[in-house]
Write a structure and sequence with these properties.
Radius of gyration: 26 Å
Strand content: 15-25%
Largest sheet: 8 strands, parallel, barrel
Oligomer: single chain
Number of strands: 29
Bound molecules: calcium ion
Number of helices: 17
Helix content: 10-25%
Structural class: alpha/beta
């Protein structure tokens, strides 16, 4: 049989009553209670032939501390004031309008320099008017100034690795160890013991961002459960929800191909999308799910919200042959799902699995892989697909550009700044800042869906501070400089706030880069040419420049966008990326009776029309400076 147990609290010895449940002919167990149980907590006890298991409801929507018992909550009381009236945070008209920013909830606020009061909390993300000691805007204001359209937050459903009852002791985790899929994480709330507080506070966050025109995307980890055998999915229906084969390397892999786990995913995601007014989901290790499930999810969620953003890690990991995995290779089978593009990630800065190996910005390496990202992984006649390195699927993915989630830094692996320091050692800081601008330019000027890692706009580093290095503590997964004086962490999922937090002093030091990223985002938003959505449009409007014909040196990468063909306010745009240490001479092509305008020299946007380089005649020769992505346009 199955029993419902009602408790006074989320933990402890305070059972109120035990009620036997009945089995309906459909297979659903139920019990009818004709009084309000608002504020109580509950569990289910499943009686199997040899044992009894008491566990939290796998469908729990609220819970007590550490997610041990479900909380009974009247959801109408969880809405912040104005919730129903507020506009949904639809950002932009099309998926390609999105500029996504990936952030861990704690990282934004936890450092002293943030000037934020609710450190490490959902509420810390919504404080406005916060500044560092030098008066630089931090937190929400910083993101609004930057111009992002979506904030993608690392797992913020209830996870297990942080003890919510001991929040006074230092704890940090990315949260890729799901505990309760339908409930927000308690350690990010001001009171994890209360069933409604975490819900209310997450909703307040979503509301505040909606008001700022920013949608929230939740990172979801349905592919595995740590210690799965002992958690609700494992104890409720032993053996059913997990595969025998394990590829995640992080506990039990779930079985999306099984009917009731597929339904569980669809139901849970639909609930989040509707109840919390989210804008989308990022699927962790999506290659462990199957294509049918991802399509069923997309169909169900699009019925709730037409412009929902769905993307994930379509890595090849699954080899058991019992389902069709949701990978890049099978992207065409899931036209509504985006995939992180590892080809462009590694093309820009060099591969993530070899700290010293250079990428395009260092020496012109991996040019075809970069082009593959620039076109948004669609079919294009100027790309030699056999030379596209760094992805399991070096063929056109789909006919929509946003299937390609373009990035070069994310929470995983070494940061861009740190990789730059390992590939080219002992250069002046300004040199690295320039490479940072170049790398981010390539992401934001590519067709597809761009995503930035929080803090990369101020050259985020995960270098181990000298005083910690001096303690000779053991660190694993570290990239060392060749003189062994600098060590950079690759995987900081459970490392202290000290390494993970955003350093707002650094934001101030690197404000020149911040401003540049701001300008790039604004340029992208203003010009349709950078936001083409179909392969057809890309082939019509975007072409790579033949270096020989244009008199450019070989490794320079140049492309042009025909603005008149894609509804852009500019007639023509030329983008030239020079990875060399010396100038590349470029003769500007015919501009009819108009002029070419220099939009940016790769270091600064030229906003001042009295600048002598603001207007250039056809045929004039311009020196493309080293390590820049320079942009010209006919306005
Ligand atoms: Ca938790």
């Amino acid at each position: 049989g199955v029993y419902l147990k009602i408790y006074n609290d989320g933990v402890g010895n305070n059972l109120v009553e035990t009620l036997p449940m009945e089995r309906h002919w459909t297979g659903v167990w139920f019990v009818e209670i004709l009084r309000s149980l608002d504020g109580y907590f509950y569990t289910f006890t499943y009686e199997f032939s040899s044992q009894k298991e008491e566990t939290i409801d796998i469908y729990a929507k609220a819970c007590g501390v550490n997610g041990e018992r479900g909380a009974i909550v009247d959801f109408s009381t969880t809405n912040p004031e104005g919730w129903d009236k507020d506009a949904d945070p639809h950002a932009g008209n099309s998926i390609v309008d999105a500029v996504i920013y990936e952030l861990h909830v704690r990282d934004l606020s936890v450092d002293e320099s943030s000037g934020i009061q609710n450190k490490g909390k959902f509420l810390g993300l919504i404080e406005t008017g916060t500044k560092n000691s030098q008066g630089i805007s931090t937190g929400l204001d910083h993101m609004v100034n930057l111009g992002i359209t979506h904030l993608h937050i690392l797992p913020s459903y209830d996870y297990g690795s942080v003890d919510e009852s001991k929040l006074d002791t230092p704890q940090f985790n990315w949260g890729y160890d799901p505990q309760n899929y339908g409930v927000p994480e308690g350690s990010y709330s001001s009171d994890p013991f209360n069933g409604t507080v975490r819900i209310k506070e997450l909703k307040s966050l979503i509301q505040a961002y909606a008001k700022a025109g920013i949608g929230i995307i939740l990172d979801v980890v349905f592919n595995h459960v740590r210690d799965g055998l002992y958690m609700s999915l494992g104890t409720s229906v032993p053996g059913y929800f997990y595969r025998i084969e394990g590829y995640s390397g992080a506990g039990e892999d779930t079985a999306s191909e099984r009917e009731m786990f597929r339904k569980f995913m669809i139901d849970t995601l639909s609930f989040w999308l509707k109840e919390y007014k989210l804008s989308g989901f990022r699927f962790d290790l999506m290659g462990l799910h199957d294509t049918d499930t991802m399509n069923a999810i997309s169909k169900a969620l699009k019925n709730i919200r037409k412009d929902v953003l769905l993307y994930g890690e379509g890595w090849q990991m699954y080899n058991a042959g019992k389902m069709v995995p949701a990978t890049q290779v099978n992207a065409a089978k899931m036209p509504d799902i985006g995939h992180f593009n590892d080809a462009i990630r590694c093309a820009i800065k060099g591969p993530v699995f070899n700290d010293q190996e250079p990428g395009f910005i260092h020496n012109g390496n991996r040019k075809e892989a970069l082009k593959f990202g620039i076109v948004g992984a669609v079919e294009h006649p100027d790309i030699e697909y056999s030379k596209v390195e760094g992805t399991a699927a070096a063929t056109p993915w789909t006919e929509t550009t946003w299937t390609s989630v373009n990035y070069t830094e994310i929470h995983d692996n070494i940061t861009l700044n740190d990789k730059l320091h390992l590939v080219e050692e002992n250069k002046p800081e300004e040199y690295y800042d320039q490479l940072q601008k170049m790398a981010i330019s390539l992401i934001l000027l590519s067709e597809g869906m761009p995503i930035l890692h929080a803090g990369m706009e101020f050259c985020r580093t995960k270098e181990i501070p000298q005083q910690i290095l001096d303690t000779k503590e053991e660190f694993y997964d570290v990239g060392w400089s060749s003189d062994k004086k600098h060590a950079y962490l690759r995987n900081t999922y459970n490392i202290t706030d000290k390494i993970n937090n955003l350093d707002w002093k650094r934001c101030e030091e690197k404000y020149d880069v911040v401003t540049y990223v701001q300008e790039l985002i604004s340029l992208r938003k203003q010009h349709a040419a950078f936001r083409l959505s179909t392969g057809k449009q890309v082939r019509e409007c975007l072409s790579f420049i033949d270096n020989k014909k244009a008199g450019l040196t070989e490794q320079v990468l140049a492309w042009q966008l025909d603005g008149t063909k894609c509804g852009d306010s500019w007639e023509k745009i030329i983008i030239i990326a020079n990875p060399f240490g010396s100038d590349a001479k470029y003769q500007l092509p015919e501009a009819g009776n108009k002029h070419w305008s220099l939009i940016t020299d790769g270091s600064h946007f030229i906003n001042d029309d009295s600048n002598p380089t603001y207007q250039l005649d056809s045929g004039s020769v311009f020196n493309i400076r080293p390590k820049t992505v320079t942009i010209f346009a006919i306005k």
